[in-house]
Amino acid sequence: MAATRRTRPTATPADTPQRRPVDGEDEQFARAVLHPDLIEFLLTDPRQPRGFWLLGGHLDVLHEVGDHRDPDNLVPALDLRCDILDRIPQQVWS
Length: 94
Prior knowledge:
Elements lengths: L26 H7 L2 H9 L7 E4 L2 E4 L9 H16 L8
Antiparallel strand pairs: 1-2
């Protein structure tokens, strides 16, 4: 049986890692996911993602996609999700 993990990052530039609020069933996992590079990205990326959830093996990003059948909308939305995943440290998944 796979463990369910969910995290919703919320942060401001003045937050320290110890004071950064996290929401998840596994706080240690959530804090590991919220690496400083990811926090910086979420706060500064011009696409302005409003947050994300990791639930089991799925990533859900709070971001407007538009018509998901239109490649002009879908490709940038997928790029955003890849950019988020790229900033989660590899050791988080082991």
